[in-house]
Predict the 3D structure of the following.
Amino acid sequence: MDSLMILIPVALLLGLIALAAFLWALRNGQYDDPDGAAGRILFDDD
């Protein structure tokens, strides 16, 4: 039971860090793809 007093806050902290990293990447345009797969299929790379 004592280990849960440590593991639960650590898990919550890691989850919040992951959420913050995802939101940071989303705001900085890391997931923008202006030349997406729909445009790449039209070009023939030899």
